[in-house]
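User: I'm putting together a small comparison set for a docking exercise, and I want a reference complex before I start. The sequence is below, and the ligand is fe (ii) ion. Could you produce the 3D structure with the ligand included, as structure tokens?
Assistant: Of course. I'll restate your input first, then give the structure tokens for the complex.
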Amino acid sequence: MVGRPRILIVDDEPRTLELLGRALAVGDFELELASSARSALEALRRMRFEAVVTDVYFEGSNDGEEILRASRELQPHAAVVLMTGQPALETAVQAIKGGAYDYLQKPIDPVVLVAKLQRALRERSLDRAGLAFNELVEILSGMVANTIERVDPYTAGHGERTRRYCDLLAARCGVDAAAREKLELAAITHDYGKIFLDDLCFLTKPGPLTPAEYLAVQRHPALGAERLGRHRRLREVCQWIEEHHERWDGTGYPHRKRGTAISLPGRVLCVVEVFDSLATKRSYKDAWGLQKVLDFFETQREQAFDPDILDQFLPLLQAHGEEWMARPSSDRSKRRSSANAEGAAVS
Ligand SMILES: [Fe+2]
């Protein structure tokens, strides 16, 4: 776990949700609030949580059980604390048997809840002597991103943004949590092969590439997959990296794979990677506007991109497009100012 632990709080009473949200905000947690079982399940599919605090009865129905079951399935590492206003010993026993960490009776004392969550998180980190896969992803991602950005400063933050958007899109496309963790690594390292190209100068060349340069650049997906390593846990990661320039209609590279011959995570990565590249100013082009990007994806439906994935991606763009379009230039200025600050500190 890197950064503040993220907690999902679920309750259909707005007042309880607000009070718990306020009480837990001082506990140095990052909070996500959900007022129904449906939005809780959606959040569980969308992002990682270290703990889930949920009501049991929602307008008379026992949806807490479903949330507990989904948490165990989608986020087995997370501690689940159940809350109810109708305590019964059998229900509590049932909940613990179902995998809940604890069971609290309403009204909830925020101090008790914060202490319980802190203890649960501490116990879970003690359970693990080594680094979890997601922690390794965080650490390696930072290293690889720094390396790629050093040879191509125009890609500042591209890997990290691709990683975030891929995770959201993959969840909507039904990719399970374990595969999504690996996809995060593929997303951040998809351009790793660029650093092994014989000539790095044309990565930042102003204007279009010559046919020979374009052919040379096309080696980067396979180079990345080859040089990332042969560890058995990386097999799919390498496959998705190699697929990130393949196209639905078979016009991509390096293998001209077509349709579902490209893996589902590979197809997700193709869409997101193109989106962020279009939203970013590169040495050879300006950043596009949102409408132009939306029009582009519409025209490429069933050509470059899987239409089913676009059906999931375009609503995300409608919801987050303006923010996502502004991020490349703000990431680039942040990198520039931190590089300037480091330069000033050295001199
Ligand atoms: Fe690429």
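The beta strands are 6-10, 30-34, 51-55, 79-84, 102-105. The mean pLDDT is 85.
User: Thanks, that's exactly what I needed.
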